[in-house]
Write a structure and sequence with these properties.
single chain; alpha+beta; five-stranded mixed sheet; 22 helices; elongated
C-alpha cells in the first residue's frame, strides 16, 4: 500500500516521529525534544497532531534514556576492563593509580576525585593522587588516623557518603581537615575503603563542590575502582618484595634463577588474563590459562556450593587463596556477593607469587562474570520490553517489530504459541514468594533466549512467546515447558497455552488475545487440580467454556466444526443442515434422507465429506457431544433460538 493510501492517523504518527528521530540521531539535549510540540502549538496545528507529537516525544525520550543508560554501562565496563588491563601489565604504580582516579572522576561526573594511603611508619594518612583539585593545602593534607570522613571509612571498612560535609557530625572534624576541605570548596563527598584482605590501606574519594546524592550504582562503581587500586598497590608491593628478596640473594644464582622463573610465570599469566579479557574469553578460559602457567596442578572454576564452604568463606574473609587439604581455594566475589571459586588441585606446595597469580585470576574471573551478567540482564530486559509492547500493542510497525525481533534472533513471521506460566506454591512470607517468582522469571528468560523466543513478567507470573517446532503442538509444548520450568525452579509450575499464531509482525494485536486464552487454560488446569501440568485450549473441548471466566464461544465453535462451516460457505453445500438432521434422526442415514428429502447415497456422501473435514473419530461419543453443542451454539449465534 502506498503512503498516500495510508489512513490519516498512521500518516500523522509517521510524520510526528520524524523530528524526534532527527533529534535522537544527532544526540540532542533533553530540553530540545519540547521544541516540535511547542512549534506545533504556536502554529495552531490540530489537537490530534499535537497529541501525536506529545506521544512521539515521550517515546523518543524513553529511547534516549535507554541509549544513555547503555552508553553509561558500556563506559563503566570499558573503564573497568582498561584498568584491569593496566593492572595486568603493571609497570608504574603511580600511573595506574592516576588512571583509576581519573576514570572514577569521569564516570561519576564529580568535580574532584582523590586517593589517600595510610603511612604505617608515621601513623597517619596522606594524599597520594588527586584529580581536579585546585587547592595546594588540600593536596598536601596529612591526617591523623580516625579523623574526617576518611577516618570513618577506615575504621568501619565500609563506604560512607555525606551530602553536606560541614553539617555531618557522624565523623570527627578537625581544624586542619576542615580548612583543606573549605579551601577546595567541597560539599558532597563519597569515600570507599582500599583493602588488602581484611586490612584497610587507604580510601578512594569522589567529591562535588555542590550538594549531591550518590546512588547505589555509583557507590558500587567507585568500590570496584577501589578494589582495582588496592590490587595494584598489592601487586606493586609484591613486586617490591620480590625484587628486595632477589637483591638480598644476589649471590645465590640458583635461587635467583628460580625466583626469576616464578616472576616470569606471573607476568605471563597477567598477559594471558589481559588478552582473555580483551577478546571476550570466559571463566573456563581463565582457569585453563592459569593451569598452563602453574605447572603440576589443574585449576577449575566452581559455582557457589561446589566447593567446601569452610574453605571458600576463609578465602573470602582473608582476601587471599587458602589451602584446603592438597588444594588451594580462591574466592570469586564482587560487592559482597559470592560468585564461585577457583580451585587449584594437585599442587599443595604453592609459593607466594603463584598464590597471588591464583588470586589475580579470581579477580579477573569476577569481572568476567559481572560483565556476562550485565549483558544477560540487558538482553532479558530487551526481550521483555518487546513482548510487553506486543501484549499492549504499543508498536504496530511490522518492519520495526521484525527488526527488533531479529536483533534477538527471533522470527515473528513463523508459527508461535503464547504460554502463561505461574508457580503453584504457598510461600511462608512475601520475601520467599518474591524469590520464587524471580527464579521463575530467570528460568523463563533462559528458555526464551535458547529457543529464540521472548519472555516477560506479567500478572504475578511469566508469559512466554515461543516458536512452534516441527511436529510440535500447543499441548506438547505447554507440557514440556511446564516440566522444564518446574525442574529449573524446583517448584510446581502450571502452563496454559494458546492456539498457534502466525505473522505476528503484521498482527501484533493477536498476542494479547492469545495471552488471555493461555491464562484461561492455566486457570482451568488449576480448577481441575492439575497444578504443575501444561495444556492448550484444544485439550478441554466444551469444558473450556464452563471453566473459563470469558466464554470464547466463537473460538470453541471454530475449533470444533469450523472446517464444516467454512466448506459450506465456500461451496454453498448443506453439510451443517445434514449434520443437524443426522443427529435429530438418531444417527440413522435412512431417517436422515427422509427428513432432508434426498437419496440415502447423498446422505452417505455428505457424511463422508464431514468425516474428512472433522477427522475419522468424529462419531466417537466424546466428539459427538462436542459437535452437537457446537452446532447448537452456531445456530443460536447465527439465527437466534428456534
Amino acid at each position: 500500500m502506498s503512503r498516500d493510501h495510508l489512513p490519516s492517523a498512521e500518516r500523522s504518527a509517521d510524520s510526528a516521529e520524524a523530528p524526534f528521530l532527527e533529534l535522537l540521531a544527532r544526540g540532542a539535549a533533553a530540553d530540545a525534544y519540547e521544541q516540535p510540540v511547542l512549534l506545533a502549538r504556536a502554529q495552531g496545528l490540530p489537537d490530534g497532531r499535537v497529541a501525536a507529537l506529545e506521544q512521539a516525544k515521550l517515546l523518543a525520550l524513553r529511547v534516549r534514556t535507554e541509549i544513555e543508560g547503555r552508553r553509561r554501562r558500556e563506559a563503566e565496563l570499558s573503564a573497568l576492563f582498561e584498568t584491569a588491563h593496566d593492572l595486568a601489565g603493571l609497570r608504574d604504580l603511580d600511573a595506574v593509580l592516576r588512571a583509576i582516579v581519573q576514570r572514577a572522576r569521569s564516570l561519576l561526573g564529580t568535580d574532584i576525585a582523590y586517593l589517600s594511603l595510610n603511612d604505617a611508619v608515621r601513623g597517619d594518612t596522606y594524599m597520594r593522587v588527586t584529580e581536579g583539585s585546585v587547592a595546594a593545602r588540600f593536596q598536601q593534607l596529612r591526617l591523623g588516623m580516625g579523623e574526617g570522613l576518611g577516618g570513618l571509612v577506615a575504621q568501619t571498612a565500609r563506604p560512607y557518603v555525606t551530602d553536606d560535609y560541614f553539617k555531618d557530625e557522624r565523623f570527627q572534624h578537625t581544624r586542619t581537615i576542615d580548612a583543606g576541605v573549605q579551601d577546595e570548596g567541597l560539599v558532597a563527598i563519597l569515600g570507599v575503603p582500599l583493602m588488602i584482605g581484611p586490612q584497610v590501606i587507604g580510601v578512594l574519594f569522589a567529591a562535588d563542590r555542590r550538594a549531591r546524592v550518590f546512588d547505589r550504582e555509583q557507590i558500587a562503581l567507585l568500590g570496584s575502582f577501589a578494589a582495582l587500586a588496592a590490587a595494584a598497590i598489592d601487586s606493586a608491593n609484591a613486586l617490591t618484595e620480590t625484587r628486595s628478596a632477589l637483591d638480598r640473594l644476589g649471590r645465590a644464582n640458583e635461587i635467583i634463577r628460580d625466583r626469576s622463573a616464578v616472576i616470569e610465570r606471573a607476568s605471563d599469566v597477567h598477559d594471558r588474563l589481559a588478552e582473555l579479557v580483551l577478546r571476550g574469553g570466559g571463566v573456563h578460559d581463565v582457569a585453563a590459562a592459569v593451569s598452563e602457567v602453574l605447572d603440576g596442578g589443574t585449576v577449575e572454576f566452581t559455582e557457589p556450593g561446589g566447593t567446601p564452604p569452610v574453605a571458600v568463606e576463609a578465602a573470602r574473609a582473608d582476601g587471599h587463596a587458602v589451602r584446603h587439604g592438597d588444594d588451594w581455594v580462591a574466592a570469586v566475589a564482587a560487592g559482597g556477593e559470592l560468585l564461585g571459586a577457583l580451585v587449584l588441585r594437585g599442587h599443595p606446595g604453592l609459593d607466594p607469587v603463584d598464590q597471588r597469580t591464583l588470586e589475580r585470576a579470581a579477580m579477573v574471573t569476577s569481572l568476567l562474570l559481572l560483565a556476562r551478567r550485565s549483558a544477560s540482564e540487558a538482553e532479558q530486559r530487551v526481550r521483555g520490553e518487546l513482548l510487553d509492547d506486543l501484549l499492549d500493542t504499543r508498536d504496530r510497525d511490522p518492519g520495526l517489530l521484525r527488526e527488533r525481533a531479529a536483533r534477538l534472533h527471533a522470527d515473528l513471521d513463523g508459527p508461535h504459541v503464547v504460554l502463561a506460566a505461574r508457580l503453584d506454591v504457598v510461600a511462608a512470607d512475601a520475601g520467599q514468594e518474591a524469590g520464587a517468582r524471580r527464579r521463575l522469571w530467570s528460568a523463563a528468560s533462559h528458555l526464551a533466549a535458547t529457543r529464540h523466543g521472548l519472555a516477560a513478567a506479567r500478572d504475578g507470573g511469566t508469559v512466554l512467546l515461543l516458536p512452534l517446532g516441527p511436529g510440535d503442538t500447543a499441548t506438547t509444548l505447554a507440557r514440556r515447558i511446564a516440566k522444564e520450568l518446574g525442574t529449573a525452579v524446583q517448584e510446581a509450575v502450571t502452563v496454559g497455552a494458546s492456539a498457534p499464531l502466525d505473522r505476528l509482525a503484521t498482527h501484533p494485536e493477536a498476542v494479547a488475545a492469545a495471552y488471555t486464552e493461555g491464562q484461561r487454560c492455566l486457570e482451568a488446569l488449576r480448577l481441575l487440580g492439575r497444578a504443575g501440568d501444561g495444556a492448550a485450549a484444544e485439550d478441554f473441548g466444551f469444558l473450556g467454556l464452563l471453566l473459563a471466566g470469558d466464554r470464547d464461544i466463537s473460538g470453541f465453535v471454530g475449533r470444533t466444526i469450523g472446517g464444516v462451516v467454512a466448506y459450506d460457505e465456500r461451496r454453498g453445500t448443506d453439510l451443517l443442515r445434514t449434520l443437524d438432521a443426522y443427529f435429530a434422526s438418531g444417527m440413522s442415514p435412512a431417517r436422515t434422507k427422509d427428513a432432508l428429502h434426498v437419496h440415502v447415497n447423498t446422505v452417505a456422501q455428505r457424511l463422508e465429506r464431514v468425516g474428512r473435514l472433522l477427522g475419522e473419530d468424529w462419531q466417537s461419543p466424546a466428539r459427538i457431544l462436542e459437535i452437537q453443542l457446537a452446532l447448537r451454539l452456531h445456530r443460536l449465534s447465527s439465527h437466534g433460538p428456534r
